[in-house]
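User: Please predict the structure of the protein below. I'd like the answer in structure-token form so I can feed it into my own downstream comparison script.

Assistant: Understood. Taking the following sequence of 219 residues as input:
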Amino acid sequence: MFTGIIQSIGQIVAIEPKGGDCRVRVLTKKLDLGDVQLGDSIAVNGVCLTAVDLPGDGFWADVSGETLARTTFRRIKTGLAVNLEKALTPQTRLGGHLVSGHVDGIGEITQRYNDGRSVRFHIKAPAELAKYIAEKGSICVDGISLTVNTVAGAEFTLNIVPHTLVETTMGNMKTGDPINLEVDIIARYLERLLLGDKAAEPGAQGLSRELLAEHGFMK
């Protein structure tokens, strides 16, 4: 688990194809690896990866075919700047929100413009994720815990303050860029719980108007 509070901007410095998937080397820069051991988890642009080698200035990790298919790692290249966060511990301050490092889908930045000293982003999410995105709720964007400002259909807005622009890759993001999205884990579990016994049935599809009405959320 992670918090979505980025600890360093790292860089992809090597990619080794491995017959359908790949292994990547990540330069971690200011991220302290003194307490990291082989097998530990590190979030890279919001993707939970396992450290399989620790050369001293970073780590190597395997990237599965599933991860390549479902995240922006499908377009990974050397030189790419990435957001890094070590897995949380019982002593970690939960400054963001609970993040699993399991990407739900790929969004796209549709607009970027200045808003005072901040920058406003408009992001289009995959249609199937829209139901999990709530105004003033939490969302994880490329590993960053952020607050949703407004929602209109499958598009939502973010207001990124100067500190976040400097300390994460958001400062260099532009219109058209793809981004990893992880919705609030509580919303996913709530949906599953509301299904009740129907969750065990083949083809259970999650929330619907009928299900909400059945549980008294609609009249």
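That's the full token string. The chain has two domains: 8-86, 105-183.
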